[in-house]
Write a structure and sequence with these properties.
single chain; 289 residues; alpha/beta; TIM Barrel; eight-stranded parallel barrel; 42% helix; 13% strand
Length: 289
């Protein structure tokens, strides 16, 4: 079994910086995690070398997330806007490589926002073509692109597993993968297990999040069962843990994700319980050879 486990640093801090990354990574490692998310929300301000140095001796390897902007959107019909979006993602890929990461994930196919209209076929085609271009470039740097499927309130393009599978297959790059998150799946998928099995050939990141976005062990999403289904089907990719509470977030990020209340107080307790859930489930399931 080679599933690595990652955690989002929002369990402990509003922002991850080179100054606090070492301490947070050591806390994550102490709970049995192997990887930690390093967000690239403003890639032009990131010092990749400083993050690489901060994490070098912690036993934790970074996993990066990135995104697009309305004026830098690789799905835009405007070529200048589209190229700015591709260049924004190219910068994220270079930063990932330079800090020792092999993974850039997130909503890479357009801005994260409540969309005003239904997506057109042209938007989908342009996004697939743009991502295929950058994915092939990223492959030469040892970095994969992983598309997160999110709910209808945060995108109009890839909201469920079937849409993600057809999109990746249309794009045609073998360096383009999928990221499923049980929080978003809970809104969009009629059968969580079936969605995981459908996405499995392209699935590189399975993220566990509860309906309230707090403690994985309390809530109505059967996160352990979803993980067990994936493992029984042969999933060997990364397993992520994500939780958000408003007091440990910047106002801007909390508001953008509609995190309006505090759902946990102690990041170490949350991380320990999440790690125990994942490790216990891993111990109970052996992926077929």
């Amino acid at each position: 079994m080679n599933n690595q486990i990652a955690i989002h640093p929002a369990a402990w801090a509003a922002e991850l910086t080179p100054d606090n990354a070492t301490a947070i990574a050591r806390r994550a490692a102490g709970h049995g995690f192997h990887r930690m998310i390093v967000p690239l929300r403003t890639p032009e301000t990131i010092d990749a070398g400083a993050f690489e140095k901060a994490l070098r001796d912690t036993g934790i390897r970074p996993v990066n997330t990135a995104g697009q902007l309305p004026d830098a959107d690789l799905s835009s019909v405007d070529e200048e806007v589209r190229e700015r979006g591709r260049n924004r993602l190219r910068l994220a890929v270079r930063l990932a490589r330079d800090m020792g990461s092999d993974h850039v994930g997130g909503v890479l196919y357009g801005p994260l926002r409540h969309a005003p209209v239904q997506p057109s076929g042209e938007t989908r085609r342009i996004a697939a073509e743009s991502l295929a271009i950058v994915a092939e470039e990223a492959k030469t740097l040892g970095v994969r692109l992983v598309l997160e499927i999110v709910n209808r309130y945060e995108t109009n393009l890839l909201t469920h597993a079937a849409a993600g599978v057809s999109f990746v297959e249309e794009a045609g790059s073998d360096n383009l993968f999928l990221h499923l998150d049980t929080y978003h799946m809970n809104i969009e998928e009629p059968d969580l297990g079936a969605a995981v099995r459908l996405a499995l050939p392209h699935l590189a990141y399975l993220e566990l999040g509860q309906n309230h976005r707090g403690d994985l062990t309390r809530g109505h999403i059967p996160v352990r069962e979803v993980l067990a289904t994936a493992l029984a089907a042969g999933y060997r990719g990364m397993i992520g843990v994500e939780a958000f509470t408003r007091r440990l977030m910047t106002t801007q990020v909390a508001t953008s994700l509609a995190i309006w209340r505090d759902v946990f107080d102690d990041g170490d307790t949350l991380a320990a319980e999440a790690a125990r859930l994942v490790h216990d489930t891993l111990a109970d399931h052996v992926a077929p050879n």
